[in-house]
Amino acid sequence: MSFENMCIQDAETHILKSKRESASFQSTNHFSRNIEEISDRLKGYVSSHKNMTDIHAERLFQTFAILESFAKYENWYGKPAGKTENIFRSILATNRAISSPLFLILTALNHRVLSDLEIKSSSLELGTGMGIASKVHFESKSFSVVSDPGLSPLLYTRSISSHEHYMTIDARHIPFNEGTFETVLAENMLYHVPERGKALQEMARVTARGGVLCFNDINDIARKERPWYNLLKKSGFSNTSKEMLNFLNSGSRYRAESDCEQNFSSQESLKAELKELGFEDIKIIPYFSKSLLSLAYYLFDSDFLLKTNTLPDFSKDSAYSNEVFDQIYLNFMNTVCAPLIEQDEEIVSESKENAYFFLVARKAGGQNAALNKCSEEIKCPHDGSRLLEKNRCLVCEKHGHEFPIFKGISMVTPYYQEWFKNLNNSDRKEVLRG
Description:
This protein has 18 helices and eleven strands. Helix 2 packs across helix 11 (about 240-250), helix 4 (about 85-95) packs across helix 5 (about 100-115) and helix 5 (about 100-115) runs parallel beside helix 6. The protein folds into two domains: about 10-365, Rossmann fold (3-Layer(aba) Sandwich), CATH 3.40.50; about 380-434, no CATH class. By secondary structure, it is α/β, with parallel strands linked by helices. Strands 6-7-5-4-1-2-3-11-10-9-8 form an eleven-stranded mixed β-sheet, sandwiched between helices. The protein has helices at about 5-20, 30-50, 50-75, 85-95, 100-115, 130-140, 150-160, 195-205, 220-225, 225-235, 240-250, 260-265, 265-275, 290-305, 325-340, 345-350, 415-420, 425-434, and strands at about 125, 145-150, 165-170, 180-185, 205-220, 280-285, 355-365, 385-390, 395, 400-405, 410.
């Protein structure tokens, strides 16, 4: 394994470490091991039977065909895919490996709000992931800082974009001064943070007076939509269903029942919370109908449970890359999912039920007299003191904490500071050489 891959692998464990801080994670080890064993057996069986991949693809394509026939029966063919089809193609043109139905659906829905968001000269995106959704929404526009808690997705993000700075950031400890950014965006991020209240306060703190904060969150409908968990529980698999719920709670889109009030707020309570944090012109945009959610989450959880890809390999050199992809999978997405996306606003308005919502708010007051230059004002996430660049590290002026800079990405989180400190001298030097 190359040292770069080792760095990425070690860096990604910070997400697992964060999950383990939750009590709900403690009882998941047995379930997790069982899933890994099942996955290994499946992979071994497939590798010893050359036709298994084709059989899997055939069964999957039959499912798509059945759903498409249902859509035809419901006359969904008469409802055009509109702009949604172009968004699907834009995502898949960037990376066909990112072809999960849930990702495509959520990105297309989010685009309806984010395509109109103004990215000002001082801007921050939290939880960018691999940067594909951001690239679709904003095309060639760049942020001052794009960030994610993990190093690996940022390395990919940098390969497909041209933002000013790339940083690993823990949303609970944003390493910038108060009022640094005129635009702060967190897409599909807040509901993954263990202490979302703390993250919200931090996002509000770094938003400049007159600046805009934009993020999305989920409602109870999304947290309670657990297709496989509900099936297992109703079928009498009490231990398995309980362990699966804890496994999903350890970092997925929903928390344990006892945590819900602590980790999530209603749309109205969030609005009140932002008012207390100094925001006005607060707009809540409900979206993601229950019908579309049920379809998307079923496909997502089936993939997550079995630890296998819902779809065959659709990468550039795959046998499935052209005719099969266009005629079966993309046709399914355009016929079954796109009409629901195009009608989402209408369906949500009529049903009064939405799984997700966006919140867009402006911080009260005029623009800050002098916005801080984010490249010059990076702060230690531990104590808020200034970080100075020294020997390819950012060093805390007050306590000497060191945050490595790896391949131009500043790793400014408490996790990476601890990770870097525990490396031996040889490995530390190799990290800094990038």
